[in-house]
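notes to self, project folder thing:

trying the whole complex as one job this time. last attempt i did each chain seperately and stitching them together was a nightmare. two parts in total, labels are on each line so i dont mix them up again. if this works i'll redo the older ones the same way
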Amino acid sequence: MIVELARGLWTTLRALIFEKKVTVQYPEEKKPVKQRFRGRHYLDRYENGLEKCIGCSLCAAACPSDAIFVESAENTDEARYSPGERYASTYEINMLRCIYCGFCEDACPTEAIKMGDNYELSFTDRRQAIYTKEMLLVPVPPGGKPTPQVTPPGVYTRSVPEMKDPVD
Amino acid sequence: MAKLINLKINGKPVSVPEGTMVVDAAKKAGIDIPVFCYHPKMEPVAMCRQCLVEIGRPVIDRATGQPVLEENGQPKLQFGPKLETSCSTPVSEGMVVITDSEKARAGQREILELLLTSHPLDCPVCDKGGECPLQNLTMKFGPKESRFLYDEKHHAEKHFPLGDLIFLDRERCIQCARCVRFQSDIAGEPVLGFSQRGRHTEIVTYSDPGFDSVFSGNTTDICPVGALTTADFRFGARPWELKSSASICSQCPVGCNVTFNVRREVKAGGGYVIKRAMPRQNEQVNEIWMCDKGRFAGYQYTEADSRLKLDSPELDQALSQAAVKLAESASQAVFLAGGRLSNEDFYTLKQFATRLGAKAYLYTRHGGGEYTTRYGLAPGSNLGNLGKGDTVLVVASDLYHEAPLWYLRLKAAAKRGATLIVANARATKLDEFATFVIRYSYGDEVETVKSLSSKEKVGEAIKNTHHLVIFYGADGLGLTGTTALAQACADLFTSLPVSQTAPKANNGLIGVWSTPNQQGALEMGFAPCADLAAELKDKTVYILAADPAGDDPTLAEALKGAKAVIAQDILETETTRLANIVLPAAAYTEREGTFTSGERRVQRFYPAVPARPGTKADFALIAELAKRCGIDLEGRSALLVMNQIVANEPAFSGITYAKLAEVTEQWPIIGRSDLFYGGTGYENKQGLGVTLSLTPGVSPQGRDKQATLLSPSPAAKEMRGEGLRPKEDELLAVPITKLYDNGTTVAPAKLLAAHIARFDGVFVNPATAKKYGLENGSQARVSLNGVTYSASVLLDESISTGVVLIPRSFGIPLAEPAFVLLTALEPAQEA
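result (full assembly):
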């Protein structure tokens, strides 16, 4: 019986002394997420600052939990938000409804909505869980201009860029 | 009944009338053959080649004329070496059609692949995406991959405004010519066409301003791609996000069946908003079409800033005050209701008036209701059944402007062989399709109708007809004129052999009213008042859904002289501004009810959006008011009111809400999963309506008494005999109706502002204008009864000299034809 007890205690001792610890001191210490992790969404921009989102609402259609709400409006060259004719005038995601399945990302024809690394979502009010377009849009990249932009006519005529085979 | 032909489609035996195209026969058998250019309402052109199928015909022995039989006893079949277009091939006896063989599928697939070589595939931003025939057919029949190079796609203009209501995307167009053919064949306004050839073929408009048609919205419904889209729904929503709600258009007495599409919006605080109006199929009323007024002005006022509303305590207070005033006045109260109210509202109002002892009038300048209720259309009527051997008479009405769908239906009837007689003092759009056009001078309407049967050819057409339908309007006529005209039409009717028997379908007198439910009010015994201004003096006036003060300054003065004015309306009007008490009503898009169309068809509309806070349905407000006067009326729901109507109004007997919601199978089959066949119009699942029963000669209670009230004034009588002949320097001004007017419910439609402005003025002949030193668009003074109005002058060659046409609702209160003086505001420059 002693032998069995010692064997069992040895297992404990071995884990305690010789094995690498897996416990992380969150939130002081944070582990990087995996490459395909699906965290809080963000809306991407092109390098020149134009929004990738064209307000097509396909993410909302794909969403199984009806968390996304989109309203669209028309671009002009005087006030351009995105390439092509259409942009999202309202874009909201209810993070309480979202199940982080990533269907919206798959449905997006312009790779505008992407799921990021942020998993630290907590709210004290249900209204806080609704992320608006301003909250979701990434900052304007260096060298780009904020939207709406004034653009030369006839340049941004296509909403959907020619798709390459997805990398990653 | 045409001869039935038996054939087999995909092994399924089908029998259809002779002359049916294979694609329609398949549709009837529940087999979908993909089509783009074919539309069941139009002649086949076989342009797109999408409907390719294999067709085999029995081999006939030339010697005997009998089918050659195979060894097994079956007829020997001869299949063509190539695929055939099923849209342009009529069925024949013993035919065998195969739509789903590998050969047929390959043909269909390859046509789709070819069409997609120059299609931009911008479905994510296309308004048609989600209800697009090309999209659906590609998913169902198309190739999985294209063998063509993406870079070689043809690029063209993407955002071209054909008119201010319709946008064209030239890249998306697949040149099916449905829009071109709709405009030329169905609408009779050939303003679209093709230009260039081959890959450069593009749709162009020939009119100025562009796409000048009142049916333009329909082309977006039948466009099989997103090439034509409407300006009001542009990027409004994706089709799959929309909820639909059945309704009836309330802009004219035709009563087109429509569907309102609604969705939630941020602007409305998350509430439901109507995003678009789409036609709903009713082959007996509007088929699958609707006019641009209904589409672009039919619901927009629901969201207007000028909507009336009151807080709950305010409304309560207003109702109490109004009740006190009405109860005080009792028999000294006058109710004035516009034809925009529903049947339920009119009934509740009538009950209230009767119990209170008040007088209730219908507010209209279009009389003759005592005749349309007695000689109107009987059950079973359908303008779509009029054809060879039938006669339709249109008198004093510009149907194209007053009721566009009736114009469309009569044009089609004339095409089917019906004799169409158009009698008017000026040229109207319908003249083009008429068998006989009769021109008279304004004032001679009654004489013209009386002399019809003595005319040679016209008389014959009227006497020897299977069916006779008469439309009479108020073109150049006021209340007395229209009443006299209706009487003349009714007399004509009774004198003819066609009406000697009991009421039969497709015979009758139809009033081209200006409101959706005037007929319903008339059926319940409402009648207009001959001298309204005098009637209102020192009375407590309860006005519903009408704007007398805005229409006529003399009525505004009369209302100021009234003891109290209680106005109940949806929107702010001149009348509500001068009223002592205002009661906010819910728009018809926010509540349930029924309208009675000019054809006497009772049709149900359903709430599309919730009622605005602080508003209530008209009948509920009336009942609430009655309750506070100590009169108990039904105000809980429209259904309960209808139950009472059925019990107490003889004309409505037998009608129930359930009956109104009944549907039967209609042809063509549209709006199911096969949007490519009939377009994106909606299938009717919510009811075709019921036509009121008719007993000739029997008028609703009290009608005759009121009719005598309306006997024309001596002056009018004197003028009518010899026509209205102006003196020197004077012009005869007559009121007319244009489609896009400045009415309470039309004006909030921002998209139509430019169209409305086109009719804001007075119309004169160029020769008349020249005589007075006026040009097109120049400002003129119009002196009417000693009051001077300024208006811009619009030229129209079709009107006779000496006449000035004054469109209703643009500020010049011309109720009856009158003589006016026309002077230039600024002297024209000496030429």
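what i see at first glance: The interface with chain A takes residues 121-122, 124-125, 129, 150, 158-159, 234-235, 237-238, 240-241, 264-266 of chain B (CB under 8 Å).
need to look closer tmrw
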